[in-house]
Amino acid sequence: MKTRAVAWWFVAPALAVIGVFFVLPVLAALAMSLTDFDIYALADLRNLRVVGLSNYVELLGRPLFWTALGNTFYFVAVGVPLSLAASLGAALLLNAKVARFRRFFRTALFAPVVTTVVAVAVIWRYLLGARYGMLNYVLGALGIPAIDWLGDPRFAMPAIILFAVWKNFGYNMIILLAGLQNIPEVLYEAARMDGASALQRFRFVTLPMLTPILTIVGVLTVAGYFQLFAEPYVMTQGGPLRATTSVVLYMYEEGFRWWRMGYAAAIAFVLFIVILIATLIQFRLQRVRE
User: Fold this and answer.
1) 194 vs 80, 110, 186, 198, 206, CA distance in Å?
2) Quick one: pLDDT at residue 100?
């Protein structure tokens, strides 16, 4: 009992910080989602009213929310597999015995992760420009008509997905590279002696050994992509025709453009439930595979 008490004293400062800066704000946001907290209540709390679940009922009845949720699911459904595939492919290439200049390429591929989203997004806006963009210049040289990547609802979200994958895949690449380097070489040698091809070694040795890491990487990537905000905010402002409005961007507009803080808090908790369900599904699928 004495040892346990000492352990609690050691973790008490960390728990206090978590309680003050995480638990209390979450509880305050939950309470706010049950009110009509807006700019008037911000000026005078006497204008604050408790509305119960009215914010949630209104939210589920607004077409714009379902549009934003659909855009977010589209971004996750396409962006997460592409990001994981790019991360795993880059990690496999860097882990190959024939690879040269590994430190240089590891740094170069990871560099977009630590760059400022706004600065990089501005550059990508020029690359994807309808009239003078480099991508359309290349397409024109190949005889393909120019595409308004950020102004056409059909191409705006794919363009943002491409940018997000390029910006973020290096983070997962480093994690997967560490996992590949921890796979015992004797497993590959045994597979070679049994006559396994490179594809079979990848399927029956690499993937099973990477499954726990892939699960964690998948959970983090899905949670991060559900919180899409900076990319559409900088590149398209949610347009065109709301084709790139995400749930978090919609929450930002309601909370900080229209000052409907209670309604924005309700959006945040609905998104939390969606991410929680997606996470539980991923862990469930992992148990089934095991």
Assistant:
1) 35, 36, 12, 12, 16
2) 84
